[in-house]
Design brief:
The chain has helices at 7-23, 29-36, 42-54, 71-82, 90-103, 108-123, 175-187, 192-201, 203-209, 212-226, 239-242, 247-258, 260-271, 320-338, and strands at residues 58-59, 68-69, 126-131, 137-147, 150-158, 161-168, 230-234, 277-281, 293-300, 308-315. The protein is of the alpha+beta class. The strands form three sheets. A five-stranded antiparallel sheet has the order 7-3-10-9-8, sandwiched between helices.
Length: 340
Amino acid sequence: MRKELTERERDILLKIVELYLKQGEPIGSRTLQKTYSLPFSPATIRNVMADLEDKGYLFQPHTSAGRVPTDKGLKTYINSLFLALGEKDETLVNRLIDFLKSEKVWDRDEILAKVLDFIQSSTGYIGFGASFTENLTVENISLFKVSSDKILIVINFQPDYVLHRVIRASVPDGELPRISKLLTQKFRGKTLKQVKRELIEEIEILRKEISDLSFRISTHILKSLNEVNYLEVHGTSNIVNMVSGDAERLKQVLELLEEKTLFLEVLRKFLNEKRNISVILGSEIEPEPLSSISFVLGKYSAGFKNGGVVGVIGPKRMNYSEVIPLIENVTRALSLILNK
């Protein structure tokens, strides 16, 4: 049977979490009562705290100490902050837009990189971003000879995205236009996701259908397409401030940051959520070393649904009341810039 919170329990829980995030120490009933001038005696607050502990929202590190929130209690506090979302901070949005203009960056990847610098410098945590472009559709595929042993692959997507890669290959004269036409006819109008799936599932058919050269080109295209969706991380040195005093855990977290597949999977799941802003606690993800950190995620658009995600990796005890609105307004600014 689900144990619902009473109005008093919820109010006290939110205040305990808020104070704990500021102080980082177990919160006692007397401290809580004085800080917020609550109209309850410390004894009454202790009883409520005991009930919250029974329900799994708080725990007591030591017998004589106060309580600290569990991840369940922290999530309740975070969800309460989502109720305040939607308040536009035009100053922040305009500041970010002006910052990008002053940096004179126009390429989408460069814009994202500068936004991540802005995030990590504004929060002191790790800024990260992922570009998800699997809903783009292929317009045409063109191959150009760069030198005797190199060709340039250019894939135009709709809306407004170009992928280009130089690969090493010797190509007979007149072969590139034919292969370009064949690949364009095969993949025009299909999404990046569909193209990748077909290249994987039908690679043997492609080998028989076109020349060995075309097969090698298609393999390079698949490799390039897999690189379109990427995760970029800025400010990893800030992890030292988040996992202080535990060298082994610091090493483990740094190794996980290098293993980007884990984070891309987390972000893809977030893209399927209805909400545009979310917080994922490290304890909700395997493996265990992530339990001391959390992720604040926000979606942005780029001419198509769910262009990508930007966010913060920080300590579980971070100032969510500031970071969540920051990420919300950064994604708003990024969407405005990329959709112009």
